[in-house]
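User: Protein folding is very new to me. Would you mind checking the protein record under this note? It all follows right here:
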Amino acid sequence: MTAVLLWKEYREHRSVWLALAGVAALALIGLRVAFAPHGLDNERDLRDVMSAIALMLAWTYGMVCGGMLLAGEREAGTQTFLDGLPAYRLQLWWRKCAIGGAFVLAQFGVLAGLGLSLAIVKSPEEIVLGALILVGFGLLGYVWGLLCSAKCQSVLAAIGLAVLGQIASAGIVLFPAYVISVLFAVLFGSGGGAVAFTLLSVLSLGVAPLVLSARVYSKTDRLRGPHAPLHHAHVARQAPWPGWQAVLWLSLRQARGLALGLALFSLLAGGLALAAPFLFWPLLTLGIGALCGATVFLDEQQGGAWRFLADQRFPLGRVWLVKVAVRFALTVGAVLIVLLPLVVVEGLSEAQNHQRNVPYGARLFRAEVLIHLVPPGLFVTMWALIGFGVGVLCGMLFRKPLVALVTAFGLSLLVAAAWGPSLLGGGLHAWQVLGPAAILTLAAWSLVHAWAAGRVASRTTVARLGAAVLGAVLWVAGGLAYRVAEVPAVEEPPEVAAFRATFPPSDKNQGGELVKRSCSRVEDLMRGAHKRPEPLRPNDAGPRPESYGERLLRVEQQGWPRDKGKSRELAAWLDKLFEDEWFGWLELAADKSPGVVEDPRRITIGSPLRAVGPARTIGQLLAARGLQLQAEGKPEAYVRNLRVGLALTRHLTNRSLIISAATGRAIEHSLLRGLERWLGALEDGPEARPLLARALKLLREHETACPSEVAEQEMAEYLVALNSLDAPEEWAFQEFGPGPSAISPALLKVARQVPWERARQERIVRAAAWGDEDQRTAALRLGRGTSPVWERGRHFTKERLLRRTCLLRAAQLQVALRLYQAANGEPAERLALLVSRRYLPEVPRDPFDEAPFRYRLSKGEALEWPGLE
């Protein structure tokens, strides 16, 4: 008999055993392959996640195996045959328990082998401890599966009851065990307390369920005998109402047990979802949908009633529709119960915090950034609908409900996983996600007659099923292709390739390297210089002393201070600062051709631009230093610093980002404002004319060398955006602000690397950079918060460029007028007098209207400057 039972259990368990072993291999190996190239926070995190998955799989298979051993006999109708064998039920129980234990240990061997091969555990201590914990979790699920299957009529009911039983018993048993262990620790030390706690836990949660399982299953043995009471079979009453009402009545009667168990499970699941709603909600609701869909015809599959439906010529379409509708209503109710704890907790927190500025769906799931990307209604319903649609089809294809449920859950995960990267990419539509589930549900409806006739494996059924699967696959492929096609198609201009080729190699970028070295040194020297010092006395009501940064700005605006005390302190600070070698590096950089300070080919949006801040400070230092030395009788120093500062501007604006170019313009602005102060303090004389001529030449050469367009900056920003596609953790969702959802950087990277999402992101970047107004608007809308694009203010940047050109040409006019006055002893009456080889080749033109600058000599009248409204 043992050999017969072993063969029988092997045939029934092998498919489930292989399926769960395959799931374990795919989960653990897939996790290692998916995250190893990109990495989690560290290797330890990845190993912890894989260990948790292995323990969960061992626990799950233990419950499945235990549930199939006893409840599977009632579900398949073979328990009567076993009762007819010349053996007591207790003898059958012992043999079944041993056979099931062998299957469980074999599954443990697979998990242990995967753990060793994937290096989940490494040291001998970790191997031994991991094996003990794995066996403990698996046996815990196994004994509880045996206990619940001794009483339940189906495997699914046994598994569900086992889950609830373990959760409830843990709360009941562990607290008394802890109290007793504390008492033993007081009497026998900490070791005695640990032993007592372990022993009580094992006896209560492991041994007791095993004994109860044998006791419950062998109850018939104790009732056998000459005086055993006779049990009359319960004869089901005929449905009292014909038509739709009869089918509805039958469906509701059949769903009562599942509804009660599902309600309890949903309450527990809702409590679990409170820990991480956005992560647990998809798995829980997808599982609920798959369970309800796979059990639509559970009662008909168990007792063979599917043949009765066909033999009695029942309207199968009506039966299918009503039963699917009842199970769908059950799915909706279960999902609402899972949602209930989230709503209650959010209501309590809202009453305390009053966060009404955050959308309700974002607060509910604590995932503000993703709720902006996916409509809340779609996020709430899509998982359950996918699971239900796949489950209905699997429930009709597989006679065993457990096989149907496992297959439905796995296929549902596969269908939902296809939309996972798109979920993080934004712009997902309901028709894309729900289409495959609807196709599979319609396929199940088309197979109802073949199912009732027992011809599920016929050629016609296979053809219909193949067409449905192909249609679902094509729908998914079409939806993914539409994600790329909905973005305007814009080609990359050929100028971008030429722009990439113009960057000098590192060994020839001497000017840029000198500027970066100088900026880094100035950053170190200026630490704390912009911090305003505290007053000597805390209650001092007088003005607080200025920081050195504020003093530099005041010098730029008003010139070198006349207060001897302030000027002496500031001069001493500047003397010490300019003794360092950074200024010599800038002088060397001024002799080099414009280099690249921040290379856009090697940086992303989140890369720190370390030269920008110090370079702005350098501009103020050069202007202040020039004015300081002029006050000390060295006016030529400002021209020297002007040369260095203008060269620094050219380095910063050469093939640079917008922010780097803006910094260069700010440096230029500081130097030109300081130039006005220098011109006002410059004394006429023979030594002034060569200095003015030199300054005029520097300004003219600088205007010629600087780009007159923002094309370089736009191409540089485009290159940075392309680079940033590989670093989504630096920019993703920043438009929505810091939300409560913590999205793993590794998960973002993986989501962006799938081919369709990568193509979509690249098209968004191209359309935002090079498209026309409509294409750019569409790209910015589709990439809002999910792509490294934003409105970069092109018109604002161009207007700034016009202002810069205007100020630079006005400065040339100022110097030329001052040179004319120094040479002729009087100011020029009109600008035409400046047109000569000594001054200017022509009168500069105003870049805003391309007309020559206007000029008149003041007669001493008061001038009023129009105010800004």
Q: What stands out?
A: The longest helix spans residues 316-353.
